[in-house]
Amino acid sequence: MKTVHINNVELPAVGIGTWNLGDDPNCHDDEVAAIRAGLNRGARVVDTAEMYGEGRSERIVRDAIKGYRRDQLFIIDKVLPTNAGHQRLSTSLEQSLHNVGTDYFDLYLLHWRGTIPLAETVDELEKMVTHGKIRAWGVSNFDVSDLKELWSLPKGHHCVANQDLYNLEERGIEYDLLPLMKKHHLPLIAYSPLAQGDQLSGKLTSDRLLQEIAANHQASVYQVMLAWTIKDSGILTIPKSSSVAHAIANWQAGELNFTPDERAALARRFPRPQKKQLLATI
């Protein structure tokens, strides 16, 4: 299994995403079982956010991690931009901690940029580190200009990760954002690594090259897509798992290694962007 370092912690490069988990009460037990299946296989990262189902995903995480050693988990949560200032960040954080049932988060992200100045948000995040409520902080949906503005702040370089959309069909960050992050040793957390929407995922699952590579490794196309997101170092991928079978398949994808010929074929079939693109988000 590939690994990635975030805040000096070595982590398996395949984590567990929870977007949309908790939305259907009838799926509660299956979703809890899926998260536990990933953890039982060796996953350590569980990613959630106060926005996901207005706390419902956080509470699914709470139910799933009961009985696990907290120091073996790496829990990521996110604050909404409207709550990321002096007046609300502390309260939002406390509510999220309560929802997840933990005393601290290993990583707390600004979910995306809003109208609150970055300096104010960074100030509050630094306070939460001092108070022991979070071990580290980062950002999400930040592009090159956002990171440069962040790094211009006195404590902006305390940011330990940036979470962005990244998959075979959304490679815009490879043009300038990923190279900049690698230069500054800032890890990427890749969200929606298996793409979103039936039309897009259907297009990819029917791709002949992906099918051929999947057959070479006795894997599924989805596993190939997931393995592609972590083919390079410094990347953590966080696919959602709503069933035990998917959770196990996601974990196994982290053990898939492409041959040089396969990497070259993928690069030809899905070429890098040749110009700056608007940051893709969902």
From TrEMBL:
For this protein, the record's Pfam families field holds:
Aldo_ket_red (PF00248)
Give the highest taxon in the source lineage: Bacteria
Identify the Gene3D superfamilies for this entry. NADP-dependent oxidoreductase domain
Q: Which InterPro entries match?
A: AKR, NAD(P)_OxRdtase_dom_sf, NADP_OxRdtase_dom
List residues of the NADP-dependent oxidoreductase domain: 14-266
- Which PANTHER family does this UniProt record tie to the protein? ALDEHYDE REDUCTASE, OXIDOREDUCTASE, ALDO/KETO REDUCTASE FAMILY PROTEIN
Q: What is this protein called?
A: Aldo/keto reductase
* Gene source species: Limosilactobacillus panis
Organism taxonomic ancestry: Bacteria, Bacillati, Bacillota, Bacilli, Lactobacillales
